[in-house]
TrEMBL record:
Residues 2-62 form the HTH tetR-type domain. It comes from Rhizobium phaseoli. It comes from the Bacteria. This is TetR family transcriptional regulator protein. PROSITE patterns: HTH_TETR_2.
Length: 188
């Protein structure tokens, strides 16, 4: 039976999302995709090797088809953070955050992949925002936006409170628009 790499990676993502890094096993993954464990190890030598592929797939789904700069900065910012928020709300967990808590210095490939995943999010949001405000302000707002969205995910997962995510999105949009307005006023 031929199992596509994308199927393995997307199934691994769901296992990581639901069970965390420590709770997901290569055996579980092999069973879930219908492969023998030895066939899975041919494609991925260990669980840690799956982490970059899982996070790359997630980044591609979030940012891959976007033509940065094709829209007004505010419309693009809203679109991206609403996509992130919807994904987090629908899934109830952030695979990146789940992996962040499960990786360590003993899993350097996974740890570096998690860092790169969140850095890519922050860089992307910051590049959108920097079209309307100074780079340092954009960087801080991008960081705060991600912190809000990730924090709201906890309330979605624990209490099924989707309103927390809606507030996180609204506050992030307000913060960005206020910073852009202040930048515009100071440049006059």
């Amino acid at each position: 039976m031929k199992v596509m790499r994308e199927t393995i990676v997307s199934t691994a993502r769901e296992l990581f999302r639901s069970r965390g890094y420590a709770g997901a096993s290569m055996n579980d993954l092999a069973d879930a995709v219908g492969l023998k464990k030895s066939s899975l190890y041919v494609r991925f030598p260990n669980k840690e090797a799956l982490v970059p592929a899982v996070l790359d797939l997630t980044l591609q789904e979030t940012f891959g088809e976007r033509d940065l700069g094709s829209k007004q900065w505010d419309a693009e910012f809203v679109e991206v953070i609403e996509l992130i928020a919807t994904t987090l709300t629908d899934r109830g967990r952030c695979v990146g955050l789940h992996l962040a808590y499960g990786t360590s210095d003993e899993t350097p490939i996974a740890k570096d992949a998690v860092r790169a995943f969140f850095q890519a999010h922050r860089n992307h949001l910051s590049s959108i925002l920097s079209r309307a405000m100074p780079a340092d302000v954009a960087w801080n707002i991008a960081t705060d936006t991600l912190a809000r969205l990730e924090g709201a995910t906890a309330f979605v997962a624990i209490f099924e409170e989707k309103d927390a995510m809606k507030r996180a999105v609204r506050l992030s949009i307000e913060e960005a628009k206020n910073a852009a307005a202040a930048t515009s006023l100071s440049s006059r």
